[in-house]
Specification:
By secondary structure, the chain is an alpha+beta fold. It has helices at about 15-30, 45-60, 75-90, 105-110, 135-140, and strands at about 10, 15, 65-70, 95-100, 115-120, 120-125. It is built from 5 helices and 6 strands, in the order ββααβαβαββα. Helix 2 (about 45-60) packs parallel to helix 3.
Length: about 140
């Protein structure tokens, strides 16, 4: 098959399954994805482990931007901490992380800049630590 670019795992005509399996095993260990093996279907993982799997996939490259929408919704406390640590690690490594969340505690814990959108428009932007919870709540409710 000429003209088809070869990626890290080969091309559509010749897939390097061994390399894929090794990368999956490495991600499972690095991200502590419980109950997983390289052949495990992602739909069989718990919410927290599925979330870690997605982060492992997205963070393995050299992404310059990562958008995380409600990354810990429905997760237990331990999985939330792991997801927060992974996002913080990505930001520390230079990835621009855009966190979209209704969880104000999560936003305050992870953000360096906080932007508030209400009714489809930007109503406030602050450096972390320069705005109160009350002010953010007021803006979120449209009392700008």
């Amino acid at each position: 098959m000429t003209g088809v670019p070869a990626g890290e795992y080969g091309n559509p005509a010749l897939v390097r399954r061994g390399a894929m399996k090794a990368a999956a095993a490495g991600a499972i260990e690095t991200y502590n994805i419980q109950g997983a093996a390289p052949a495990t279907l992602s739909r069989l993982l718990s919410g927290g482990n599925a979330q870690k799997l997605l982060l492992a996939r997205e963070l393995r490259g050299e992404a310059s931007v990562l958008i995380a929408h409600s990354p810990t919704r429905g997760l237990d406390v331990s999985a939330c901490r792991t997801v927060h640590d992974l996002l913080q690690g990505a930001a520390d490594a230079g990835t621009a992380c855009v966190l979209i969340s209704e969880d104000l505690e999560e936003v305050l814990a992870l953000s360096t800049t906080i932007a508030v959108i209400s009714r489809g428009r930007l109503v406030g932007e602050f450096a972390a630590g320069e705005v109160s919870r009350a002010e953010i709540g007021r803006l979120m409710l449209g009392h700008a």
